[in-house]
Amino acid sequence: QVQLVESGGGLVQTGDSLRLSCAASGRTFSDYIIHWFRKAPGKEREFVSAINDSGGRTNYADSVKGRFTISRDNAKNTVYLQMNSLKPEDTAVYYCAAGRVFSVFASRFNYWGQGTQVTVST
């Protein structure tokens, strides 16, 4: 099993940057593919990005490509999401999730963090 805790969210203006962290605990952290999802009010959880166990394979939603960068430091048991050029439509609660395979479907994941709020003002 793995436990996840997100941090780094906050209130920023359009064009600003934030770096989110997903800190994990558990013996098998390096075995998991870590995903970021986000949930805006009134919407379902939306896939944002994912990174495999070694960090050599990444995936991004089209809406964040070129602006967000996911990375992984297994020595620190942490996955990061660097978010640049933030837009109001990025406003959401951001969650990390752990799984054994890549998936854009939130329902496939059993391990979730508590979420961190990102608010981007105009």
**Count of helical segments?**
0
How many E strands? 11
Question: Which structural category fits the helices and strands?
Answer: mainly beta
For the CA atoms, what is the radius of gyration?
13 Å
Overall average residue pLDDT:
94
- The rough form would be described as globular
Span from first to last CA? 40 Å
The main sheet comes to: 7 strands, mixed
Helix content: under 10%
Structure summary:
This protein has 122 residues and is mainly beta. The chain has strands at residues 3-7, 10-13, 18-25, 33-39, 46-51, 58-60, 68-73, 78-83, 92-99, 111-112, 116-121.
Written account of the structure:
By secondary structure, the chain is mainly β. It contains no helices and eleven strands. The protein has strands at residues 3-7, 10-13, 18-25, 33-39, 46-51, 58-60, 68-73, 78-83, 92-99, 111-112, 116-121. The strands form two sheets. Strands 2, 4, 5, 6, 9, 10 and 11 form a seven-stranded mixed sheet that branches. Strands 1-3-8-7 form a four-stranded antiparallel sheet, with no helix packed on it. Strand 7 (68-73) and strand 8 form a beta hairpin. The protein is globular and about 40 Å long. 32% of the residues are buried. The model has no long low-confidence stretch (mean pLDDT 94).
List keywords for this structure.
globular; 122 residues; mainly beta; 0% helix
What's the SSE blueprint?
Blueprint lengths: L2 E5 L2 E4 L4 E8 L7 E7 L6 E6 L6 E3 L7 E6 L4 E6 L8 E8 L11 E2 L3 E6 L1
Parallel strand pairs: 2-11
Antiparallel strand pairs: 1-3, 3-8, 4-5, 4-9, 5-6, 7-8, 9-10, 9-11
